[in-house]
Amino acid sequence: MEINNEILFVEIKKENFIFSSGSFDENYDFNISQKLKIPNHCFKSNKIINLDETYSLVKQSVQNIEKKINVIFKDVNVIIDNIDYTCINISG
Asked: Are 43 and 24 a contacting pair, CB within 8 Å?
């Protein structure tokens, strides 16, 4: 991780999405600059039930954070809160 570069984390939980951006200082402490918590009603039994709505929700949330801090993210760190999984496939 680079020092003083904005990093985006997206935590996917059953009940909400949590978007956090921030940077590491010289002591590698993470300082949060923006945090956005969005209710997640697009999941049912750990599956996406409305892909278009989920896509729009994530896209709009990332754009809002980018506008507030005047940064465009090229990478995202995804944190998945899913204890009971069989297969996870994520692609760009």
From this structure: no
